[in-house]
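Contributing new records

If you add data, match the layout below exactly. Sequence lines come first and carry their own label; structure lines follow with theirs. Keep one chain per record. Anything else will be rejected by the validation script.
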Amino acid sequence: MFSLELDAPAKVNLGLRVVGRRADGYHELESLFVPLDLADAIALRVESARATEVALALDGPAAGAPPGDDNLAARAARAFLARAGIAARVAIRLTKRTPVAAGLGGGSSDAAAVLRGLAQAFPDAVKRDALEEIALALGADVPFFLDPQPAWVTGIGEQRTPVAGVPRLALLLANPGAALATREVFRAFDALARPRARQPGPPRDLARELAEDGALAARLHNDLEEPAVRLCPPIARLRARLAAAGARAVGMSGSGATVFGIFADRAAAERAEAKFERVAGGWTRVAVTGESR
């Protein structure tokens, strides 16, 4: 029997620009992905078996994720074993701390953590290139979480360039309590059909850039924010409240609905959270970039 415990960190997008659309309908992006210390926990147990069995148990404060075979973590296990040509009994206990459908990559990170764990359980059964293919087939964000380090991400998520020098940033995450479907946000984006603001390209001196409020605000521009606000107007109210709470700059992660403010340090973010006026049904979390549990 093989057992392993893994973290599955959430991420934020420090800016996101839509740069094109492929013939298959997928949008091509440019974005700076940065992992957070907010993380799900995965306990993996693998045993020999004549036929593949995958069992998933969910708990934790954000356990509203899809159960059973519909969960990306379970799908990742089945995809790995099928590619490896291995039959095994896999038990996954997933403790959810990252809210679902929030633009933080929680489900994608869970799937990647399972792939990483099974790659350790069955060394050399699936080569790295094949593991990347499995990850991309599960979702555009999954490849990033195979090695969750700050990265400049392009294509549909499969092209990643490591980015050094990302400082610790203290964030207050805020969500209106509404799940936004990525597909619907992109559909609303396509319907806008208007010129879009330019986001700075790959960072050259990120530490200096993030230290300057004007450059930081430009870096956090997200092309998907306007369509997300059209679908979920409370996003705009949360954004305004983060600014009023003293955030240096405010952005939206992924396709939403989570927005975040960047504060001077964790203590400042915690003070802001203590007096933060939430949208009814919403939630807040303090998180720090560049760390994992």
